[in-house]
Amino acid sequence: MSADHQSLALLLFSVFVAVTLGITTWVSRHRQGSAEEFYAGGRLFSPMENGFAIAGDYMSAASFLGVTGLIALFGYDGLLYVVGFQVAWLVVLFLVAELVRNCGRFTLADVVATRMRERPVRIAAGTSSVTVSVLYLVAQMVGAGSLVALLLGRTGEAAQAWTVIGVGALMVIYVSLGGMRATTWIQIVKAVLLLGGTVVLTALVMIRFHGDLDRLLLTAADRSGHGNAFLAPGLKYGGGWTARLDFISLGLALVLGTGGLPHILSRFYTVPTARAARRSVIWSIGLIGGFYLMTIVLGFGAAAIVGPDAVRGSNAAGNTAVPLLALDLGGGADSTAGTVLFAVVAAVAFATILAVVAGITLASSASVAHDLYASLRHPGGRQRSEVTVARVAAVGIGVVAIALGLLARDLNVAFLVGLAFAVAASANLPVLLYSLFWRAFTTRGAVWAVYGGLIPALLLVVLSPVVSGSPDSLFPGTDFQFFPLQNPGIVSIPLGFLAGWLGTVTSPELPDAAKHAETEVRSLTGAGAV
Amino acid sequence: MQSSNGRSRGAGDESANVSGDHPDRTPAPEDTRYRDPWYDALASGWGEGEARGAPTARVPAARREERPQGGAEAAADVYLEVQRSAAFQEVRSRYRRFVVPGAAVFLTWYVGYVVTATTAPDFMARPVAGAVNVAMVAGVGQFLTTFLFTWAYARHARLRRDRAALELRWDTQELTRGVRGGAS
Predict the structure, then answer these.
(1) CATH number given to A3-407
(2) Measured between alpha carbons, how far apart are the two ends of chain A, in Å?
């Protein structure tokens, strides 16, 4: 790409960074120190603000770059992601949002710990939350990497690494200085930018095809070289039974994973009541639904206008389809409009990554400090030191995510997110639903449910073709592949539920009826909620 | 925006605030409405008479006993008692009667969609109109049903559950505050 693209995109991105850093310092002027402030932003955001922030947290690089790329390359099969991402919000709305808001304080483990012996449950839920967050972070880092590779060309390996490091450093600054309040405002700004950018691009695609969706689809099918098969399922996940099972596995992981994502759960604590949490989810369902419907248009638009070959040529996994589409829509690489649009889209994508990364880092640092640290150490000067620990944890998580992000550079972002969802659905959702709805659930059941989902999910990923045994895997040279599917959800999600049930029925301990009553009454009425 | 509605921070202040002017409580809907900072915005959104779905739930029974014993055990008893109360059972069953069938329907519809997409691609590829085939219709249909379910859930919660839950909340907090000797 030419120097113009680069400098303009970098300029826009610097503006975003400056604005967000400004927000961070402005927000962190007065209040400091309290855990309430750091993890939950004082709990006084309005439902609309929180709805935008949830949408900002959820519409990640995986959606903007990854899913559009998959649609551009594989047509209809990319659309499954979008449908799964969207329907998942019904699970959140129906079963999770209000009850979690009522029962917990800062993290997932809070909800479970209300009923159970605190220490083992916190350690288990904290571990799985951190794991999910790190996987999700890696996906965002990979997205940042591919964007930079596109901006700087194939030679910029060192620059790519430095960008990933830079993104990591920025997120640590946002989170450790600004806490939840700054992170929320960054999400809101980013959500507005991203939705604005998507609306503009979608409008341009529709103008290019004179508002004729039919022609858009036909042109996409035509240019893909697959004909009508491009518009029907089967290109990526057709063929053998393993590929089909993979598709179903992914579908399950997407729809059940959202309710277990720590950075989404922690957003419900930033509003004052369960009813406000419900209304934030309704806002976000509207925003996210609109966004995903537009990404479908963008994906097929990229196939029709840029062409799958050009997309694949730029990034094998398809992560750069949208920036390329923007370049073309503006009038091509030599035109001013093309340059500007490309730079804007690249900057928006950067902003997206940065904001999501900040949200996840905050949630995982909360898990480390509030759950793991608090359980593993003797209670000392609690409140103050907990926030300090959370700030330090943000740095540590940043370092881990940077390292893994550099390693996983060539995987599709949406695919990586699919893995994070699978782990969340296997390890976090069973324990959450059991604690909220099952009277007989015990501490042992809770611990088993977490580990019984977490360990199989991670093991199956390690033994899958993602890690070894195929040309596209992380370590193509070795082969310890054993499990044929790329997404472990179809096995590990039932295992998580099964382990929770098994742990409960084999548990010598009787379920505590009073604690169950407390959870049930609190979850449905909001009594005693903070 | 946050502090303008005069909402006090923290549950402790809040319940103290409420119980202060509660004793002469008659079924006064406006009363509860102003307790919740988001309530009015919510009720005004859809332009429906809220009296229609007004739930019958109140917990007069739970408040008559004031126990002298203090501490967490008594608080636990309060929760058990509220859990057994008819008002709470009603809220819970309303919630479950909506959520369980609803979740079953949308999960079945979604899984059915995914399974059909993998096992019957030919059916999904059947054209409907122009380039649009069954798969496209089903995919967009998933979006539409998601919006529909969201609307239905919000409506159900607002009309059938919210007020009863709010009353239970204040009553429960008042009771736990009572047995804990003022500190909630």
Answers:
(1) 1.20.1740.10
(2) 52
